[in-house]
Amino acid sequence: MKILNSKHVQASGIYFIGNILNAAVPFLLMPILTRHLTPSDYGIMSMFGVLQGIVGNFIGLSIHGAISRRYYDKSNENFSLYVGATVTLLFITLPLVAIASFIFKTQISLWTEVPESWVIAASFCAFFQFVALTIQTIWRLEVKPIPFVSLSLFSSLTNVATTILLVVFIGMKWEGRILAQVFTGFIVAAISLLLLWARGYLKFNVGKNRFRNILKFGLPLIPHSFTGQAFAFIDRFLLTNFIGIAMTGTYAVAAQIGLVLSLIIDSFHKSYIPWLYSQLSQDSPQLNKRVVRFTFMAIGVYIVSIAVFALIMTLSLDYLVGKEFRAAKMFIPWICLGQLFHAFYYLLVPYIPYSEKTHYLSYITVTSVFINLGFSYYLILSLGPIGAPIGAGVGYLFSFIACWFVAAKVHPMPWLFKK
Question: How far apart are CA 69 and CA 226, in angstroms?
C-alpha cells in the first residue's frame, strides 16, 4: 500500500521508536531514584513538573502551533523572520512569568509544596523546553525524524546521567533531580539555538505585525492548553493539598508507569492519523467499513495489552521500586484503566478536526476537566488517595463517550455495519 510506504508514515515509525526509548529512560531511572529518595522528595519533584507545565502555557504561547501554521505559506526569508520573532517572544515572556512567579512564590509554594526558592526554576525549565521545541517543530514539519529523536534522546540521557551524579554520588535529594533538569534544559536549549542560527532560522528584524500575529494565535489557546493539561495535575494537586506531599510522591511512581502507556498511545495516534485521513478522503463505503473494523480491532488489542501491562506492572512493582513506594501498586490498575479510555478517545477524536468542527473539542475538554475535578475531589475525600485515579478515569471515560457521540454526528460511519 502506498500509504505504508509514504515518507510521513515511515517518519511516524521512527517517532514511535524514539518515544518508546524516551519513555524507557526515566522508567529505568525509577528503581534508582526510589531507593535514594523519599516519597516526599518524589512528591516535590512531581509538583515541580506540574508547576513547569502551568507556567509553560504562559511562556510558550503555543509557538509550535504558530510556527506550524506559518511554515506551509512561507518564503524562506519570511519564515526565518517569523521563527526569529517567536524566539524573541520567548525571551520576553520568560522574565515576565519569572517576575510573576517571584511575586506569588509564597502562595505557589503553599499550593504545590515546592519550596519558595525553587519556584522560579520552573519558569526557566519551561523556557528551555520551548526553545528546544522550536527546532524540533521545524524538523517535524520537514519530516526529519532522525535529528528530532536524536535531540530528544540526548536530552533524556543527559538528564539521567546528571541525575545519577547529583542524587546517587553527591547525595543530593530532590534538589539534585531538579538541578539536573535545569542543567539539561540549558544545554539542550543552547544547542537548539545554535542549530537554528546555523540553518538561518534566527533573523531578528522583528516587526509589530509578527508579534501581533503570534500573540493573536497563542493567547486564545492558553485556556485550551491549560484545560488540556489539567488531567495531568488535578489528581496530584488534590492529593498534595488533601492527603500530603508524600502520598503525591507515591502516586507519581504509578503515574510514571502510566506515562509509558501514554507515550506509546500517543505515538500510535500520530501514525494512525495519516492512514485514517487517507481512507476517509476517498469517501468509499467499503473503506469506511474497513476503518470501523480496524477501530474495533484496535479497541480489542488495547483492552488485552493494557490489561496485561497493568497486571505485570502491579506484580513486579515490589522489585522495581524501594520499600517506601510499594503502596503505589494500588494506583496502577486504575491509572491503566484511565489510559485505556484515553486510547479509545484517540481512536475517535481525529474525525472531529477532519470535519472541521474543532469547537466541539473545546467543549469536550473543558467538561471532562470539570468532571475529573468534581469526581476526584469527592472520591479523595470519601475513599482516600485511591479516589484520585478513579476520578481521572471517570473524566477519561466521559471524554471517550462524548467524543464518540460527536464524531458519529459530524462524520457518520457504519459503526453498526448497516451503512
Answer: 21
